[in-house]
Amino acid sequence: MFSAAEADPALPKALAKEREARLRTSLIQAQYDRLQENQRSLLIVVTGLDGVGKGAAINQLNEWMDPRHISTIAFGEPTPEQAMRPPLWRYWNALPARGRTGIVFGSWYEAHLRQYAHSDMTSTDLLRGIREIRAFEALLAAEGVQIIKLWFHMSREAQSARTLELLSNKMTAWQVTDTDKQVAENFKAIRDIGAAAIEATQTPYAPWHVIPSADERVRAIETASIVLKALQAPPRKRITPPADSSVPCKRPVTLDLPADTPRLSRKQYKKTLLKWQARLGRLVREAAFGKRSLVLALEGMDASGKGGSIRRVTRALDARSYEVVPISAPTDEELAHPYLWRFWRHIPGNGRTTVFDRTWYGRVLVERVEGLINESARRRAYAEINDFERQLHEHGTIVIKVWLSINRDEQLRRFHEREHNPAKRYKITPDDWRNRKRWSQYEKAARDMLQLTHTEHAPWCVLPANDKRQARVALLQHIVTVLEKALKH
């Protein structure tokens, strides 16, 4: 894997200057062509040996291109804010918009490789991490993010010589870190781990390139050439969907409503509602919840009562500790990123709650019915969503998914009520009536969704909602039951 790089090739100054002139012109042109195309972003993942000039190569690249359209992001140890969320959260938030270029230092590879090198991670954990990385990169690639991964490498002798040269000059000694000094001692282990990671994650949609880095001219020209080739490459036509490793939930779930749904009197409703709100309020203020977080995902047909249910839930919470995210048609900024990006941005930190009024399931509900995605993208979305929820669960986020189920007659009654009530008229739109005509299509999509995303780590709960009072109480009771079980363990 590294035999060619460890030969430490060099490039004559005159030849390098000639190639540089051509590259700079071509890079700027390709960068602006990509901006005008506005269909894909380019993500450059930078890693490799320490002390081999990765930073210098990227600085050079920024000089040769227009840095106003490049985001260079460096990740070190997670901050307290980042550590409260799943590991990939900070990378999702930093993704460049379509048309732009992002350069990532300290990527999703760094933590895995360093932990494994220091024996803090078993081979089983490393393999699981690699599977997650492959799924993450496949999702990004399928959503218009072009990925290239650069491993900067040189021989042990060249790395040691470069470190000593920098240390010998007071003006450059600051560039050498303690990690750089230790590379020579652990050179073989780092090289072997890198080779294994490259082999395990080398894919057509996220290829690796080894950059010989002993000669700064070779390093700069090779880096720029690979980036130019990526910018000029046509879009890939198909991405293989990642395998879904989610465990199906053993408890069945169905959209079918019971024949006789009990109804609550106003007096019973007020009394029972207060009881469950009080229990929820105590739970989210316990010390145990301060080490966890809650994502409440609400779905259902139009007029199923999501808004009213959310108000009854949030009444038990501290306004400073929750966020309600209403999901509608994506904005231009959201469309410029992979579809899960806008949901990752709202994942709560410890002790906090995010309530989604409609969710990432729009991908397999609205977009399916409206014909906005093809069958291949829809099949892929089920696996991507299950993986997203699994990451939340494994980090300690409590994921509660609820479908509020009403029948067609009840929906029609609520539509008419909204039309004739000035206080509720804003709730009814032409889209609601148009969607009602597609009831059977939405119902079929919802049944498929429940079957394919009802998992052990994020099971669905379908609540009868023809009676709003009963549905609100049942929702609060379900949240409390799940929370009590999760916090106990």
TrEMBL record:
Pfam family, one: PPK2
Signal peptide annotation: none
Polyphosphate kinase-2-related domain span: 16-234, 264-487
Alphabetical GO biological process terms: polyphosphate metabolic process
Keyword Transferase: yes
Domain of life assignment: Bacteria
Record keywords: Kinase, Transferase
One example GO MF annotation: polyphosphate:AMP phosphotransferase activity
Gene3D superfamilies to which the protein is assigned, alphabetical: P-loop containing nucleotide triphosphate hydrolases (3.40.50.300)
UniProt cross-references to SUPFAM superfamilies, sorted A to Z: P-loop containing nucleoside triphosphate hydrolases (SSF52540)
Record bears the keyword Transferase: yes
PANTHER family, A to Z: POLYPHOSPHATE:AMP PHOSPHOTRANSFERASE, POLYPHOSPHATE:AMP PHOSPHOTRANSFERASE-RELATED
Protein name: Polyphosphate kinase
Organism annotation: Kerstersia gyiorum
Lineage, uppermost ranks: Bacteria, Pseudomonadati, Pseudomonadota, Betaproteobacteria, Burkholderiales
